[in-house]
Design brief:
Layout lengths: L6 E8 L18 E7 L3 E6 L4 E7 L2 E11 L5 E12 L6 E13 L9 E12 L3
Antiparallel strand pairs: 1-2, 1-8, 2-3, 3-4, 4-5, 5-6, 6-7, 7-8
Length: 132
């Protein structure tokens, strides 16, 4: 059996994750609830019912997924947050053990933008299949 191929819907529960308070656009708390995982030979995605999606690649048991989102900020600049999940899927238990990286950058500057923030965390994402 290959985990999540071609697709499975389940409920996700994350372990503890500490992300710096300056990472205001992080979505760690939204990585719970109903999620659909879709996998082909090399592509992988996590689509949460709350609208959050991570897409990327899987090679063997190595996973690399990203979520990119634009933001307006009180400094008048346009920002982009990039959240990256990298790690492994256990082929026996199908548990995703992931490292979480958060990075933000200015995409449109007015010349007086705030300082960007970065953050990191370890996240264990356990998917329990929904049995119909």
């Amino acid at each position: 059996m290959v985990c999540f191929e071609p697709s499975i819907t389940g409920t996700a529960m994350t372990g503890n994750a500490n992300v710096q308070s300056c990472a205001i656009w992080n979505n760690v708390s939204r990585m719970t609830g109903t999620v659909t995982l879709t996998r082909t030979a090399t592509t992988f995605s996590l689509d949460f019912a709350n609208g959050l999606s991570f897409t990327g690649a899987i090679t063997g048991n190595q996973v690399s997924l990203t979520h990119i989102e634009p933001h307006s900020f009180e400094d008048g600049c346009t920002w982009q947050s990039t959240e990256t999940l990298t790690g492994t899927v256990d082929p026996t238990t199908c548990v995703l053990s992931l490292s979480y990286d958060y990075e933000e950058m200015v995409t449109v500057s007015n010349g007086a933008c705030a300082s960007p923030c970065t953050g990191m965390a370890d996240v264990s994402l356990e998917i329990t299949p929904i049995v119909q």
